[in-house]
Design brief:
Mean pLDDT: 82
Structural class: alpha+beta
Low-confidence stretches: none
Largest sheet: 6 strands, antiparallel
Strand order of the largest sheet: 1-6-2-5-3-4
Radius of gyration: 25 Å
Helix content: 40-55%
Order of helices and strands: HEHHEEEHHEEEEHHEEH
Amino acid sequence: MTPTRLRLVGLLVTLGFLGGDLWSKEWAKDTLASHVHPLFLVVSDAEAGRTLGELFAARGVSTGTLGDALGRGVVLRARLDTGLDPALPLAKPEAPGQIFALAGVGHPAPRAFFNSEGLRQSTLAAALASEWRMEVPGAEALVRGGLWVGAGRSGLSLDRRVEAGEGYALLDRSVELIPSLLKCVYAENPGAAWGFLASAGPTFRFAFFSLISLVASCVMAWMLFVRAGLSLASTIALGAILAGALGNLVDRVRYRVVIDFILMYVESYQWPVYNVADIGITVGVVFLLIEILFASRKAGDTPAPARRKAT
């Protein structure tokens, strides 16, 4: 295969994995929900008077799924509060049990955190900064802009009539693909594989992983589109790895975290949640290993030149 065709193959592999990664993360962000990233709906004037079941059904949540969520108490009604003080100690009785925000600084929106016992000695802004791994000034600005504050789960049912301006949050929604084996869940990784550096400061973590991803992407792009002499397997491998590095880099720039959503599990055993970018990197590494293995075998099978007999 000519170098031009190989570069075209590398470009197609890169764009294919990158497009699939970015699209799937948007789907996960808009469809799946967790306690830190709820599926949050604000009732518009046109939706006022509908039932709670109809409100969520219009967003793709089935009656069965919503009914199960209501039974487990993972649907919350909220109100917009613009009078909260960032310095409000969470130990005060008026501090809300759960707080939601439609937009988080440097994070996929919406956000949520639980006012747990471990946060009782913290201020509202400090708790937001700790739970969302963000800088305190950004958390203070978010509080002053107004937060959606949890008003309780009691009294919610499928037949409840909603009012304009109300907010409802579904705290848990996953999609089962293969029962007891594979499903889609929402997760965010502020570090790398297996949570590496997840507890580091947000500024350091962002700079560290972004720089590594950027340098690695430039090196692989140079090898893929400038350097000649690659095989088909190496071209596919580098294209997949480049797409994976770029996909996760885009997440870090947009959200300061990487969105993961693919979960493989058997009973209580589960693999760390991953995404399409991780699949691209894994496929690329496997192809490179195969290339190296076959190259070494081919070199080992080449007969050595015969020595001339002494006369």
